[in-house]
Design goal:
2 helices, alpha+beta, single chain, two-stranded antiparallel ribbon, elongated
């Protein structure tokens, strides 16, 4: 009776254990990114089995690929306004500018200013 290959055993032996180490490392990075961003991610492991040479069905070559999809943190944005020359600027060109000055504070002990009705 033929014994089935263990996927776990094959994975441990892939590239002398480097595949399993890479998967473990990528999984830790993925979990950290999911925790940091609150967004979902994924880790895909692809195993390709093909004949080592044409006509040889006994010798096979295994190739693997580890593809992490790490979530990225949300990036902020900036607001700009386009003027009539299509130049971007931080202030709204439609908004009037006011000459705003600081009102001096009254001196301590000075009589209050009377209000006029």
């Amino acid at each position: 009776m033929q014994t089935m290959n263990s996927y776990e055993q094959t994975l441990r032996e892939m590239r002398h254990g480097r595949s399993l180490a890479e998967l473990s490392e990528q999984l830790a990075l993925l979990v950290a990114a999911v925790r940091d961003t609150g967004k979902a991610g994924s880790l895909t492991y692809k195993l390709t089995v093909k004949p080592a040479s044409a006509g040889d069905v006994v010798t096979v070559q295994l190739e693997d690929d580890v593809k992490p999809l790490i979530p990225k943190p949300a990036r902020g944005n900036s607001i700009f306004y386009a003027n009539e020359n299509n130049t971007l600027q931080r202030t709204d060109p439609r908004q009037r500018e006011f000459d705003i000055r600081e009102v001096p504070k009254p001196e301590m002990g000075a009589a209050p200013v009377a209000k006029t009705a």
